[in-house]
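[job 4471] stage=fold_predict status=RUNNING
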Amino acid sequence: MNDIIQAAGWALIHFLWQGALIGAGAAVLLRMMGGARPGTRYAVSCAALLACLLWPAYEFVAALEAGPSKLQVLALAAVESIYPHSELLAGIDNRLPLLVSAWLACVGALALRSAFGLAWIARARRTGGHNGHWQLRLSQLAARLGIRREVTLRIVETLASPITAGWWRPVVLMPAALVARMPPELLEALLAHELAHVRRHDFLVNLLQNVVEILLFYHPAVWWLSRRIRHERELVADSIAADLTGEPRRLALALSELEKMQFASQRLALAADGGDLTQRIRQLVAPQQQRGNWKAVLATLGLAAACLSGYANARTDANLPAARTPAIVDFKTCSKPHWPKKDLQAEHTGTVTLSFHVGESGKVIGSKVVKSSGHPGLDKAARVGIEKCSFIPAKLRGKAVASWQQMQYVWTLE
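[job 4471] inference complete, writing structure tokens
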């Protein structure tokens, strides 16, 4: 369990820079793809969000597969000087259980919120009203789009905006106010938009988005990419609906009515008022000319190079025991070394460098002289003194491990 906590904690920490790298690359690429089709930008955004999920997942699995024994061998063979930030690493490593616990608490709260949303949709499906005329019209539109599954229409009193949910048994929830107030031709355009989501299986992508948002809720890049996906998805659905009805301006007018009513959007379902309504209306009325952009190719290559570079650095760091912290002496347990009487009378001085073995309990279980002071008595007194000290043992992924340390005793007379 401790290995899982350590691997998860460091994966979450490393995603801070990984997510920033993916988000920055995606932003540059999408910026250069301004003239591309919405479907292409949608695919790029989805790929970037998927990378946000897969990269830390891979790091987590790789850390578990490495195993503590392999890392321990690397740690015990390493020299302490290669850890210039050992105190910082020690502080982070010791707080990983708290970090992971807080992350799990937030994930649980967000998952519960999503579960309540899905439960509300399921209840609306069971209790929503029926309308034979619009159910027939919905089925006819679905057949024209090549949708073979049965799509159910439910009229909901408390709903603010039409939404689509479900994959195997899709359902379109339509506000009762819209059925009563909106002209039939505009309502039909909105139904065509919802059916476009059904044909593209967008509900599954939306669920995956929610999973990524829940697991990586702390990173702004995830939320930005998710919003971008929803925006591009609505543009794609608008295009399909406009082709189906043959009148793009009809759908634009329906969206304009939605904007005036200021309907709220649903996160766990696909709503017709998602994305930037103004831009969607403009795209329907005066679509941008699609053009190729060679800069997008350069941006793609740059993003790939940056990701590979970041991955290589991450793998290089992973080969070092980054989560290992050195043993720390507890000075309260140490007493001033006893100066040998003969050496004191002879006024012997010097510096002795000791290498000592700190066990998992924090006790010194062996020592040796690396560099003598030139006086055997002082060397022996230094070894006796260090063996009386207690240490906070070195840690590898949160576990206490034995380690060799070095320390200097300086014998001087004042």
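[job 4471] summary: The first strand starts at residue 152 and ends at 156.
[job 4471] exit 0
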